[in-house]
Amino acid sequence: MTPWPLRTPEEFADTVVGAGDGVPSAAACVRVAGLLGTAAYLVGAEAGVLPAVGPRRLRRAGVRAVAGVMLARGVGGLVLFGRVVERSERFKRLDTRYYSPLCLALGAGAAVVAGAGGAG
Residue 59 domain-assigned? Predict the structure, then answer.
C-alpha cells in the first residue's frame, strides 16, 4: 500500500490514526469504505435523492444510527484524543481542525434527514 500523498507509511499512519507505526490494513480500509458507502446510501435514500430499497423503518433506523455514530465520533474526538486516548500532536491538530468538525457536520446532516422523515 502506498502512503501517497505522504512520504512514508509511518507518516501516513501518524496522520490518519495518530498512533502505531503502520497504515491500517487493506481489509480494515475496505470495511470502513463499505460502511461509509452504506451510510451515504441510507442518508441519500431517506432524503429521496437515491432509489429506496427495503423497508422504510430499517432505512430510518439506519439513518439515525449514522447520525449517532458520526456525532459520537465528532464529539468523542474533541473530548478524548489527547486527554483520555493518546494520539500524536499532528493527529490531534488535524482532528481538531478537520476530522471531528467534519464528523459533526455529517452527523448533523444525517440527523436533519432522519428528523425530516424522508421522502417515502
Answer: yes
Find the domain containing 92 and state its range: 25-112
Mind listing the pLDDT tens digit for each residue in 9-58? 888 889 988 887 677 888 999 999 999 999 999 999 999 999 999 999 99
Query: pTM of this prediction?
Result: 0.88
Q: Would residue 48 count as lying in a domain?
A: yes
Provide the phi-psi class of 46: left if phi over 0, else alpha when psi is between -120 and 50, else beta: alpha
Does residue 52 lie in a domain region?
Answer: yes
Number of domains in the chain: 1
Q: Which long-range contacts (CB under 8 A, 24 or more apart) does 44-51 make?
A: 45/118, 46/113, 46/114, 46/118, 46/119, 47/113, 47/116, 47/118, 47/119, 48/118, 48/119, 48/120
Residue 117: inside a domain, yes or no? no
Interatomic CA distance for residues 69 and 38, integer angstroms: 13
Cα–Cα distance for residue pair 104/71, rounded to 1 Å:
5
